[in-house]
Sequence to fold (289 residues):
Amino acid sequence: MATMTNPQTYVQEKAAQSGSSFYYAFLFLPKPKRAAITAFYAFCREVDDAVDETMDAGVAATKLAWWHKEVLDAFAGQAHHPVMLALMPALATLGLQGSVRAEHLLQIIEGCEMDLTQTRYLDQANLKQYCHLVAGVVGEVAAHIFGQIDASPNGATTAYAHTLGQALQLTNILRDVGEDARKGRIYLPMSELQKFNVKAHEVLNAIHSERFVALMRDQAAKAHQLYDAALSMLPKDDHRAQKPGLMMAAIYHDLLREIERSNFQVLNQRISLTPLRKFWLAWKVQAFG
Fold:
């Protein structure tokens, strides 16, 4: 049934349904790059939804195993799902068959699998590995799609994209502390909670204290450092091509500041920016760099 759906229509609808800030970064891209990043984003949504929208962990694991096989099939020329039927030709159009590899997509699936087995993270290194898989790798693939002069795995633009992905993910984690807690998940490392004497049950029960604010302020500072580090890594020659990523940086960095201005009132509400504000931030990057 899925293969009967027009692949391009399917990925566009999947991306639009998410209501993500990524939409604003896609607006200004030329059509071939917009097609590729939309299909890739739809893939990320599919594997993420396999976990977040499935109550039974066994069923979710089966879905991710199916996606694992589908990625391998697609890169072997045998795609079945509309997302992969849209993504593979889009990558080929941009000449990215060698740059974006099956390994990238499989790592993203691996990160989603962690959500099935882990609801706590012991320390910063443990969380960093999770962010590497679900965000750093995503940033690398996106940077390839946007375009970069040095496309090597150790290139400066790749390092920028990976670090920026981690900054975006940490911002997401800070925004979603309350929402994740209601699902029984705490992404803030246990070592960091102990450092500020915040108990896990306080997070799970939405207890907003000065200790919690101090913990969040420290995590926000780490996110700011990641944004600064990422931007310092981006070579000037790639600034123009990487504008969509810089738009995401502008939007999410502003969201982080909004979370700070709220005194980290994230346990019982979701802090967000208005669509107009997101568009304005994206347009400013497009117009002025």
In short: The longest helix spans residues 210-233. The mean pLDDT is 92.
